[in-house]
Amino acid sequence: MSEPRQVTVRDYVRMLRASGVAVYAMTILCAAAAFGFSSAQKPIYLAAAQLSFQGDSQSNAEAGVVAPETQTPAALAARGVTSVLSPTTLQRARAQLGATRSISDLQKLVSTQIDPSSNLVTVEIRSSDKQFAAALANALAQATVDLQTQSARAGFASAANRVQAELTRLRHTQQGNDQALALSFFARIASLRTLSVNATPVSLVQPASVPGSPDSPRTSRNTLFGAIIGLLLGVIFAFVRSSVDRRLRFTEQIQEELDLAIVGSIREDALGQAAYIENSLGSMSDQDLESFRILRTNLVFLDIERPLKSIVVTSPLPQEGKSTVAASLALALTAAGTSTLLVECDLRRPCLAGRLSINAGPGLSDLLAGKATLAEVVQLVELSAGDAAAANGDAKGAAAARRLAEKLAVVTAGSPSIRPAELLCSQPFRTFIDDAVRAYDVVIVDTPPLLSVADTLEIIPLVEGLLLCIRADQTTRDQARALSRALARLPERPTGVVVTGVKVGREADYGYYSYAEADAH
What we know:
This protein is of the alpha/beta class. 50% of the residues lie in helices and 14% in strands. It has helices spanning 9-18, 20-40, 56-62, 73-84, 87-97, 103-109, 130-171, 179-198, 219-244, 251-258, 286-298, 322-335, 352-356, 364-368, 374-377, 385-392, 395-401, 420-424, 427-439, 455-459, 477-488, 515-520; strands spanning 45-53, 110-114, 120-127, 202-206, 261-267, 310-314, 340-344, 378-382, 407-411, 442-446, 465-471, 495-502. A hairpin with a 5-residue loop joins strand 2 (110-114) and strand 3. It is rod-shaped and about 150 Å long. It starts with 8 loop residues before the first helix and ends with a helix.
């Protein structure tokens, strides 16, 4: 076995594509849920007013007094928040609005934001009534301005009165004759009187306006977030599914498990049909016919030194498309002018007679049991000259169509047998294979599933090559490994893998261009 292949970005993309429906569904579902939830919410509007709280230095400057600032902007803003949220301020704002709500109800609507680098405080009101939100924000801001201004000015007036009383007391003492001291008192009193009239410790920087759109719910944003969450859940699901799912879904996974060359791929729509033969499912499409032409060409690369004259077509388990591959490959070889014999060795579940519209017997079991001769069991499936020429697309194909090789020789399973394994390991069967290889250019042997019964293990040593049909999305890693172990016990043969059941759009390449891609170019 080769060393484990490194996981690439392409592998991750394929994981997501394999669970694409689930990823899309989760994304849409979560987005729709977020949209529905947001649409059902009552709209809430945000109105904001901005206040600027000033320190002592600005008030002193207005009064003509130079003094350093004693508080930082952040401390001023924090003090301002306390005043905004005080019951007195709320009560005054409530009185200004004539609101009937209680103070506690109003307080629930209020929030504040502080800018740490400045002395600004933003008063925010959230309410389902946008007119009320703007009115309350402005009323609360104005109440803060009024109460803080009144309080500051009253404090300066009280301070002026105290200084005036001190000056009066000094006049009755010996210091009262000191003119310089008296002038300093007069200056202080004048400054404090000025501040008691003009002090503005807080000002309204930006009044609140009526909001035009609700602050919440933000339907577009919530829908986007819902879609992102759904996408993440879908991606998680895809990776979890990939880690626990044992099925082989992609060509590279199959090749990695078996360490064998991929020589062809067959679409899901082609299973159950036969190339160039119309049955109950209809005729095979040009795209599917092209896949068997490619498989026919790639057989050369299984053994470059000499052409393979006998090839077993099998699969690990039933329903993996081995009979479709065996019959269609034999017909494609015939259409190319190669004399071909198709032998149905699946004596337990035969199906080729119905697909090729020929008699079910006598067949191989009758020949091996001595109940029929070789001439009696060989049936011919004829291709028209047009089919053969179309299959090759040139004059050589048309010439080949006129030869007997156009008629595919087929040996069906024949009559039911209670001892199929014994028949296939008998000397008459070995003789039959040897004679067939000498009589035909290629012998294609359709065998039972390799892991289900022992029949195929008896046949493989008698042929020159082996095609394994592995169905995408069905064959598991454990089955592929069991297949590898079974093959390791057999004589080594040139072996190729045909990937069957490929879904349209799942994979774009298998080491060559598909028919659809070549057509597009």
